[in-house]
Amino acid sequence: MIIYKTVAKIAAFIRVQNNSRLNIGFVPTMGALHKGHISLIETAKNENDLTVSSIFVNPTQFNNASDFEKYPITIEADIDQLEAAGCDVLFLPSVNEIYPPGTVAPHYDLGYLETVLEGKFRPGHYQGVCQVVERLLRIVEPDKLYLGQKDYQQCMVLIKLLQLKKINTIIQIETTIRENDGLAMSSRNARLNEQERKHAVKIFETLMMVKKELQPGNLEPLKQKGAEFLNRHQFKVDYVEFADARNLQIIDHWDGNTPLVVLIAAYLGDVRLIDNFMLAQ
Q1: Each residue of 116-135: b (16+ CB within 10 Å) or e?
Q2: Residue 32: is its pLDDT beyond 90?
Q3: Cα(12)–Cα(167) distance, rounded to whole angstroms?
Q4: pTM above the 0.85 mark?
């Protein structure tokens, strides 16, 4: 695996690959890699001539400074995992490489997507996500961008970004990879202590309860039941919400036909966890 730390060097490398008309698959990460990331690398490897990953903990998407400071950094282990998975290129830039002095943050017109769920509870978060992803896409110029479904709203935001900026990259969304007990794999799980880790599976149990009890009609009682279940198990709930899986419009009354996704965000201690599940497609 080749490691590049500067934009100039990886851009020169990418130009050569483009001249050779090689297909490039790209998996951007913030490090602290787990099997979910590696499954994306393996899929990209199977579907493209060249697989590129990046590790960059993006400061502009953290609306909580302490969350940024506590984000787990495991570069050496990450490199080992990427090499074992057959990743061809790792882009490992500094903040100054991604945001040179004098960089002015653009504003992205994300509309409704920025006003609900994560957009509501983490103001400015998706502006930062779009800023870094656009920058990385301009550098790597991939044919395909691989994302995990766990960050469902982020996937929709990035689809919107590509439309806004007319970027000719295809987004491919892969199924959430879970631990044996159902907990969605996440870099933030590393911050859970032993007791919290045992409780964390209650998010998955809530999703399964909702799936089992879902019926057409008023969804408010089921939403409240899910939130109350999590509250009883030491969570501080930001939301348990139902939305149209196509556009994230919040749904309070389900007709039984609209594609539906349930989304959860909750704190366990000082660690914020998110998850979702498709209920009807």
Answers
A1: bbbbeebeebbbbbbbbbbb
A2: yes
A3: 20
A4: yes
Burial state string for 140-152 with b = 16 or more CB within 10 A and e = fewer than 16: bbbbbbbbbbbbb
Q: Is the pLDDT of residue 148 over 90?
A: yes
Band (73; pLDDT cuts 50, 70, 90)? very high
Active site amino acids: 37
- Cα separation, 50 vs 41, in Å, equals 11
- Residue 206, Cβ density class (10 Å: 0-12 exposed, 13-18 middle, ≥19 buried): buried
Alpha carbon 115 to its chain's center: 18
Tell me, letter by letter, the H, E, C secondary structure of the chain. Answer: CEEECCHHHHHHHHHHHHHCCCCEEEEEECCCCCHHHHHHHHHHHHHCCEEEEEECCCHHHCCCHHHHHHCCCCHHHHHHHHHHHCCCEEECCCHHHHCCCCCCCCCCCCHHHHCCCHHHHCCCHHHHHHHHHHHHHHHHCCCEEEEEHHHHHHHHHHHHHHHHHCCCCEEEEECCCECCCCCECCHHHHHCCHHHHHHHCHHHHHHHHHHHHCCCEECHHHHHHHHHHHHHCCEEEEEEEEEECCCCCECCEECCCCCEEEEEEEEECCEEEEEEEEEEC
User: Quick one: pLDDT at residue 63?
Assistant: 85
Q: Which of 124, 126, 129, 153 is nearest to 63 (CA)?
A: 124
Q: Which two tokens stand for residue 26?
A: 């790209």
